[in-house]
Design brief:
The chain is mostly helical and about 240 residues long. It folds into two domains: about 10-85, Arc Repressor Mutant, subunit A (Orthogonal Bundle); about 95-230, Up-down Bundle (Four Helix Bundle (Hemerythrin (Met), subunit A)), CATH 1.20.120.530. The protein has helices at about 10-25, 35-45, 50-60, 75-80, 85-90, 100-125, 125-140, 145-160, 170-175, 175-190, 190-205, 210-230, and strands at about 65, 70-75. Strands 1-2 form a two-stranded antiparallel sheet. A hairpin with a 3-residue loop joins strand 1 and strand 2 (about 70-75). The longest helix has 25 residues, at about 100-125. It is elongated. The two termini are about 30 Å apart. The mean pLDDT is about 90.
Length: about 240
């Protein structure tokens, strides 16, 4: 058995997480001016280098806005944030999100995945096909929802690689936490077998270069996800 090295988060990472918590909880409000780096250093008992590095990261992803000679302010992170803000929001909610969050994510999947299916049907090598077949095999014997959700992501990510487009794999990797969260909920609701059936159909369509069939089955699978989750949750519920 191989054991992974345990790594302690750095002080900068801990500072970033605490600032994200304060902002997302509303304790720090949009537009509010933050204390100076010196003041934050004294209050939080860390060096100014930690504060400076953390603030710069928070500015890069859209949580704060640094104004020269005026200070740092909580930014409108919904308007100006990037996908790291989405990940932070989901992590703050323990990787749960309301159904209102689900629809735009499914719309995003509908705009990206069918194209990935078409490219994979055109360009997939035998190595890619073997990898997809192995993922499906592992899904059939997976012993936890978490491992099944991870395999779900691997299936889509492998398809994006098989298409030989340099952008799509990066997009899928960026949204991995989203795929894991949705996949875990969908599988918990008892739809693993339906998902495997979809994947087997898509796999054979890609192998036989039936790009329209692969594309349409993926769209159908996304719609089934929308319908199935919608049947179990109403607006305002949290996914467990």
């Amino acid at each position: 058995m191989e054991f992974k090295e345990l790594v302690t988060p750095s002080l900068t990472e801990l500072f970033i997480k605490e600032m994200e918590r304060l902002i997302l909880s509303g304790e720090l409000k949009i537009g509010e001016r933050l204390p100076t780096e010196r003041e934050l250093s004294g209050k939080m008992k860390v060096s100014r280098a930690v504060i400076n590095g953390g603030l710069n990261h928070l500015a890069d992803i859209g949580f704060i806005r640094i104004v020269p000679r005026k200070g740092a302010f909580v930014d409108d992170y919904i308007a100006n944030g990037n996908v790291d803000v989405l990940a932070a929001i989901m992590e703050y909610n323990s990787w749960r999100f309301t159904p209102e969050f689900l629809e735009p994510i499914l719309q995003l999947r509908t705009s990206i995945e069918p194209y990935a299916m078409e490219l994979a049907a055109q360009n997939a090598s035998q190595e890619h096909l073997d990898a997809l077949a192995e993922i499906i095999k592992e899904m059939k014997s997976a012993n936890s929802n978490t491992s099944s959700a991870e395999l779900l992501f691997q299936f889509y990510h492998t398809i994006s690689i098989a298409g030989k487009n340099i952008i799509l794999p990066l997009l899928f990797r960026t949204f991995k936490p989203v795929y894991l969260s949705i996949g875990n909920v969908y599988i918990q609701l008892g739809y693993l077998k339906a998902l495997i059936d979809d994947f087997e159909y898509i796999y054979h369509a890609i192998a036989e270069k039936r790009q329209d069939d692969a594309r349409e089955r993926d769209i159908e699978s996304i719609e089934n996800c929308r319908t199935s989750i919608g049947a179990h949750y109403k607006p305002g519920d949290y996914f467990n």
